[in-house]
Amino acid sequence: MVSHAEEVNKDLERTAKTLLGLSGSQLTQMSLNVTTQLEEVAEQLGIRIPSSSSHSVEKENQEVHETASQKLINRVRDISQLSGTLEELLQAETQDQVVRIIEQGVKILFNQDTCIFFTWADKSQKRLQAVVSTSNPLARAVDGFTFSAASKGTSLLHKAVAESKLQHTFQEAPEQSPQLQSLDRQLLSLLDKDEYIAVPLVFKKLFHGLMVIGVNGELHDELRSQYASLSMLARHAAVPLHLVKVRKRHTQELLDESIKAASLIAQKIGHEINNPLTILRNYVEIVRMKLDEGEAVDCELQTMDGELARIATLTKQLGNLSVLQQSTLTKRLNINDVVAEAVAFCQTGLEFSSKLTISFVPDSTIKPFALPADSIKQIIINLVKNGVEALEGAGNIIVRLEAITKNEVLLAVEDDGPGIPEAMQRDIFLPGFSTKNRGHSGLGLAIVRKLIQDMQGRVMCKSSERGTTFSITIPTNYLQ
Questions:
Q1: pLDDT surpassing 80 at residue 171
Q2: Per-residue pLDDT tens for 127-138?
Q3: Domain boundary among 246, 279, 307
Q4: How many domains does the chain have?
Q5: Torsions phi, psi of 378, nearest 5?
Q6: Domain span at residue 39?
């Protein structure tokens, strides 16, 4: 009632004073506040409402009223259709789940089946990478498609990032054809569509990425009329993406704390075990010498020696984890030479059977760069040892180097063993985790991951029943 009054009349003022204790000025302010809120809600819903003066000065135009009513009906319908998708988004726990739900929502609600996303490639938030669900037909095509958000690009993608506003390649008028840049044309080629629309994913004023939909020419008008619904879907999609990042950051913090705790335990165990270790080994030799002429105890001694050797290995690994640090970098090195030396050490130092082979495939195109040679060697030794244990005496291990970009080198260690069970793959880099039941500290891969993180690299593991591959991306310019 208040919002529809041109001015607060005396009767209304007296009633408000009697029932609510409100003065005329308070009632007027309430009227203005309600009107402002009503206009804001209407603007968010994309609905034009007549001015307040139409209630008292002139009759509301019937055509305007019908148009506003129809828009309201359409918006309510759109929100109703989106409700199922929005409910699913609230339950999503991973980025892949979020992406898959939005892809399905875009297909059902907007009749568009070509949809990809751009999310931050790393913590630096300088590059955006294309992302789709594993079931998306474009899954292979988008792999490696990235662009720099930090550069002052003039593409529509850059504009969508910089302004956090919806952008599209649609031609609004003959004289207003958008100026497509190289990145725009690359994206259209990837999508195999005539046009595209990019909708920012923003939550709490934080940019989380872009939702990009490819469209063929004849569907321009149909999608153009649904900008508000697309923006609503994008706003709600940004919420679970934000929560996924928060959970991931929290998990990483817990992992860092686990490594710190393991380091403290390692120092204590190393101190307590190393002191009696030499004495025990000497005692074993003395016992063997004294019993040469008496009853044979070789079997028992062999068992004791084996257990002592296991403790020594455990101590060494614990020490490595507790004092991990970058080796001194004094000069530029050829990574092919460093890896070749590590592989040669593995070939002679590890106990192979005649049915087990290890080989190295170098890349002569990689130029020398400053690198922590000791860390690289330790990574290779740990991964090769891991592969040897998986092969159980028979199979092949291949170490490969490849220059994948100007500033990145790929180091891969492959084996054709039985693979790592899928249920275990998420935890293989955690300290203490091992796929073996006995005699393994479970620190080898934790050490690998820590060393790679220290050189600002990345490590991935892909495993199946046909074998396991550890892929390590090493930046060649992280010290520059």
A1: no
A2: 999 999 888 989
A3: 246
A4: 3
A5: -65, -40
A6: 2-71
